[in-house]
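Exercise: predict the structure of this protein bound to nickel (II) ion.
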Amino acid sequence: MYDQGKQLEAVENYVYNLFHKDSTGHDYYHLLRVMKMAKIMAQQEGADLFICQAAAWLHDVGDIKLFSNPKLALDRMEEFLLSIHIKDEDIKKIKLAIQDVSYSKGKQPKTIEGKIVQDADRLDAIGAIGIARTFAYGGAKGQGIYHPAQPKETSIQHFYDKLLHLKSSLHTKSARHIAEERHQFMEVFLDQFFKEWNM
Ligand code: NI
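Solution:
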């Protein structure tokens, strides 16, 4: 009854319920894009497809930016994974893959599955979609777009603090290749932004 395809469907439903109302750029479609990207990369890099997909769906569960009680969220997630009969050793691998994904933790994932999910998540933070998500996040957290005298804590500053550095933090060749175009697009965007701002 619980083959891996059905388990992945159940995981998708689980995160849909948790994230579909999100307006910070971490909504269901972010998870869907990260999952699709992780699946492609897992095939290219020869990693475990099931672990990569499950971990990609679940990678934002327990993120301190999004959950007031991260530990509780992770405990519930584990209970859920047990309830759909995912094997203990696979649950361990999924948890290991997601625990170091977050940029703010500054950690290097230990497994290839963790590296792939982190790369897929970072690719979704750059390019046109990354730009859209940055301003959505800033708006949701009450940050301004830009402030020339106090640029700190604005969405534009986020490009310089994080987004422009992501390209060089990627682990896999497949991700680095995709990142090139997205990185360039952000540079073009910032040039144009300041051209218009300074008119
Ligand atoms: Ni994410």
